[in-house]
Amino acid sequence: MENEKKYITTEELQKHNNREDLWISIQGKVYNVTDWANEHPGGDIPLMNLAGQDVTDAFLAYHPGTAWKYLDRFFTGYHLEDFHVTEVSRDYRRLANEFAKQGLFEKKQHVASCALTSVALMFGVVLYGVLCCESIWAHLGSAALLGFLWIQSAYVGHDSGHYQVMTSRRYNKIAQLLSGNCLTGISIAWWKWTHNAHHLAVNSLDYDPDLQHMPVFAVSTRFFNSITSVFYGRQLTFDPVARFFVSYQHWTFYPVMCVARVNLYLQTFLLLFSKRKIPDRALNIVGILVFWTWFPLIVSCLPNWPERVLFVLTSFAVTAIQHIQFCLNHFAANVYLGPPSGNDWFEKQTGGTLDIACSSWMDWFHGGLQFQLEHHCFLVCLGAN
């Protein structure tokens, strides 16, 4: 009798859906992660958004195979009485298993190391162009290369923020802070906070922060009803200012993309100096200070203010390529209102994500993220594969 399984229904599981009582189910086994939510490497928001639900597909997509061994300590002893797997989920899990057998989920540390090396070489060329050349064209070329450096560095930060791409967690954190905070000026803590929420609730108008660009852009007419952002905890008001900007967004989109980094810098400062609990806050602030030391110094070495302004605008404008790429991945896909659901997680991911067609020899340029659908459904499958 002691080995007899205990069961609860899906309806009973759904009652454990708040921060003080947070249960989830994975492959029919029920886990209590209430006390551990704050320690979750992906933050507590993904757990809260799927609380009281079966999260098998999401767990499979977002975690390496080594994560399964840690589940037992959260097991409640209960199994789902009415647990079942849809045909779509069964096919998805079969495909994930096939990818694992092919070694597509295996780490390749040399990829990140090579990327960081190339970024370092580009940084050296930028310094040479600014400090050792007098031609304005050399300076503008250095600015363009700096923008491209930021794009490639962001891919390293992206990958290391999702999974361990270095030989140890310590080196992985160094890669995150170096490629994110120190080189691009964008906090890896801010990126993790918003990006993990985006992955789980992709293209949910009220849960996905990557779609919430009011008052400048509206990706859906539903924003005209002044919906509330669950992520930011405030209303996205469609007021006269928003109406004005949105009316001209078809003209302003590309110019805004050219200076979009300014908003990312602002969001970084707002988060790091907020009252929100931030992992490694001090390290993130130090990394940002490193960026705001070397970048102004480089700009100040240019001979006059017109060149300095052109240098900054050119470097920012080049990064617009990356911003536009990410917009293409999602803005034209299906959107919805409401929280993500574990039962149709795969359908929501595929419906809210688009790939970008390009030649295979250009994969490196896009960091593998032109395969956005594959990235969302098989997160631990490295882009370099």
From TrEMBL:
| InterPro entries per UniProt | Cyt_B5-like_heme/steroid-bd, Cyt_B5-like_heme/steroid_sf, FA_desaturase_dom, Fatty_acid_desaturase
The name under which this protein is listed is Cytochrome b5 heme-binding domain-containing protein
Pfam families with a match to the protein in the record: Cyt-b5 (PF00173), FA_desaturase (PF00487)
Question: Which molecular function term from Gene Ontology is one that the record holds?
Answer: oxidoreductase activity, acting on paired donors, with oxidation of a pair of donors resulting in the reduction of molecular oxygen to two molecules of water
Q: Where in the cell is it found?
A: Membrane
One GO cellular component term of this record is:
membrane
Gene3D superfamilies from the UniProt entry: Cytochrome b5-like heme/steroid binding domain
Domain called Cytochrome b5 heme-binding: residue spans: 5-89
Keywords, ordered alphabetically: Lipid metabolism, Membrane, Oxidoreductase, Transmembrane, Transmembrane helix
The record's section on SMART domains has: Cyt-b5
Picking any one GO biological process from the record gives:
lipid metabolic process
The residues that cross the membrane are 111-130, 136-156, 177-193, 253-273, 285-305
